[in-house]
Amino acid sequence: GPSADAYRRQNEITVIGDNVPPPFTSFESTGFPPEVLRVVRGAGFKAPTPIQAQSWPIALRSHDIVAVAKTGSGKTLGYLLPGFMHIKRTGKNPKMGPTVLVLSPTRELATQIQDEAEKFGQSSKISCTCLYGGAQKGPQIRDLEQGVHIVVATPGRLNDIMEMGKISLNQVSYLVLDEADRMLDMGFEPQIRKILKEIPTRRQTLMYTATWPKGVRNIASEFLNKPVQVNIGRTDQ
Ligand code: ADP
Ligand code: MG
To answer: In what order do the strands lie in the sheet with 174-177?
Structure first.
């Protein structure tokens, strides 16, 4: 409608896809549970960022998404909050393996995502752990054995733990490739491909990237199912 178009124009949002739902311009319109909205307000957030406003309604309809938006635009909650809703809706036992998997290029980014998941998910009893290199595997494996809803991982360490037979990805039904361009630049494509082979194809896949080069486009067309693309600001294509 006209108000969706005006909001998109003001916020430099372009969408590519059929029947893209209008953006959520306020937190009230999201339908996120009160305990989550309380934490959002407590953090001092006044309104969704443009990437959140446009990607939340798409993600909540269980569509695949490609989001092209620069650093600092609020992408983490863009995928985490619909991920919480997905976890509640599917209601799987975390002892059987994680429902949500987030792949991230570095230890620093992965731990930031875990912090955000814990801060915003604790009130909804969402559990999360983080797998990254340069640290002992034992404690990471013990956390997995406790059972968690969300695993945030760098591709290298996740591959190592898969090869040890210490994680099962067959319950994953919400997959996030965060900073996909950076993961490819860092040479993680072979590990990403091995991980994707272990995840059921009946899933929702969300890909976030700051740039949209050929390598990222290829991964998107191979592993996402009719994604809606959301671009924020001017992108390089
Ligand atoms: P990106 O992944 O796009 O680089 P982040 O998800 O790390 O961005 O978010 C950047 C910062 O903005 C974080 O400190 C985050 O807590 C904050 N933030 C997220 N959503 C909002 C919002 N709706 N309003 C204000 N700040 C927000
Ligand atoms: Mg990010």
So the answer is: 13-16, 228-232, 65-68, 204-209, 174-177, 100-103, 150-153, 128-131
- Written as six digits, the tokens of 203 are 């899933």
Cβ-contact 47, 26 below 8 angstroms: yes
State if residue 44 touches ligand 1 by the CB under 6 angstroms criterion: no
pLDDT in tens, 159-217: 999 999 999 999 999 999 999 999 999 999 999 999 999 999 999 999 999 999 999 99
Does 121 sit in the ligand 1 pocket, CB within 6 Å?
A: no
Distance 209 CA to ligand 1 centre (A): 15
- Is the confidence metric ipTM above 0.90 for this complex? yes
Q: pTM here?
A: 0.97
Q: Does the C-beta of 77 come closer than 6 Å to ligand 1?
A: yes
| Closest residue to atom 24 of ligand 1, CA basis | 45
Q: What is the pLDDT of residues 8-42, one digit of tens each?
A: 999 999 999 999 999 999 999 999 999 999 999 99
For the chain, helix, strand, coil in percent to 5 are 50, 15, 40
